[in-house]
Amino acid sequence: MVTIAHEQVRKDWDTYFMDIAYMVSTRSRCPRRHVGSVLVQGKKLLGTAYNGAPMGVSDCSEAGCMIVEEFELKIVDDVEQVTKKQRCIRTIHAEQNLLLFTDRIDREGSTVYVTDQPCWTCANMLANSGVREIVFHRSYPKDSEKVITLMAQKGITFRQLDGYSPPEQAGVSVIS
C-alpha cells in the first residue's frame, strides 16, 4: 500500500493566471521591462502576449531602445507640476499585443491578467475592448491616478494582486 505523506496545495485562480502572465513575459526582449498579459474567460485561457517590437522588426536588444521624453502638466492645489516620462516607442505593449491577437467576442466580459499596471494608452484601449476586469501585480505610478479614475468611470474592476510573488522561473528584474 502506498501512502501520500503530504498533499500539495493548489494555487488559487488569480495566482495561476498571474504566474502564466509572468512566464509569458519571459519572451520579451525589452531590456527595460518584461511585461506579460493573458486573456481569461471564466477559467479558460484565451490568449497570451508580451511586450516587444513588431514581428519581423529588430527589437530593442538588437537595435537599441527608441526612447522619447514626454512631459505632462498637472495642476495640484493651484500649483503646476510637470512630470517627465520616458517611453520606448519601438515596443508594442503586452496589452496592445493581446488586443491585436484576440477576438472582440472572446474579450466581452473577460478578465485580463497583466504583470504591470497598464499605462494610460493601454488603459484606454482596454477600456474599449469589452473586458470587465483587469488584474495586475506591479504598479505603474506615472499613470496610476488617471487609469484608476478611467476604470471606475467605465465600471471595469481594476485590482492589484497583493501578496503575490512571481514564479522563480520568470527571472523578474525591473529597470525603471
User: Can you say what the CATH homologous superfamily of the domain at 13-51 and 94-161 is?
Assistant: Cytidine Deaminase, domain 2
Q: Give the helices and strands as they follow along the chain.
A: HEEHEEHHEHEHE
Gyration radius, to the nearest Å?
Answer: 18 Å
What's the helical proportion of residues?
A: 25-40%
Find the structural class using helix and strand composition. alpha/beta
- Largest sheet features: 5 strands, mixed
| CATH architecture term of the domain at 13-51 and 94-161 | 3-Layer(aba) Sandwich
Give the C-level CATH assignment of the domain at 13-51 and 94-161: Alpha Beta
Distance between the termini: 55 Å
Shape: globular
Can you describe what's shown?
Keywords: Hydrolase, Metal-binding, Zinc. Its cofactor is Zn(2+). InterPro entries: APOBEC/CMP_deaminase_Zn-bd, CMP_dCMP_dom, Cytidine_deaminase-like, dCMP_deaminase, dCMP_deaminase-rel, Deoxycytidylate_deaminase_dom. It holds the Pfam family dCMP_cyt_deam_1. This is dCMP deaminase. By secondary structure, this protein is an alpha/beta fold. The chain has a domain at 13-51 and 94-161: Cytidine Deaminase, domain 2, CATH 3.40.140.10. It is 27% helix and 28% strand. The protein contains six helices and seven strands; from the N terminus they run αββαββααβαβαβ. A five-stranded mixed β-sheet has the order 2-1-5-6-7, with helices on both faces. It has a two-stranded antiparallel ribbon with strand order 3-4. Strand 3 (67-76) and strand 4 (79-88) form a beta hairpin. Helix 5 (120-127) packs parallel to helix 6 (144-154). The longest helix is centred in the N-terminal third of the chain and has 13 residues, at 13-25. The chain is globular and about 60 Å long. The mean pLDDT is 90.
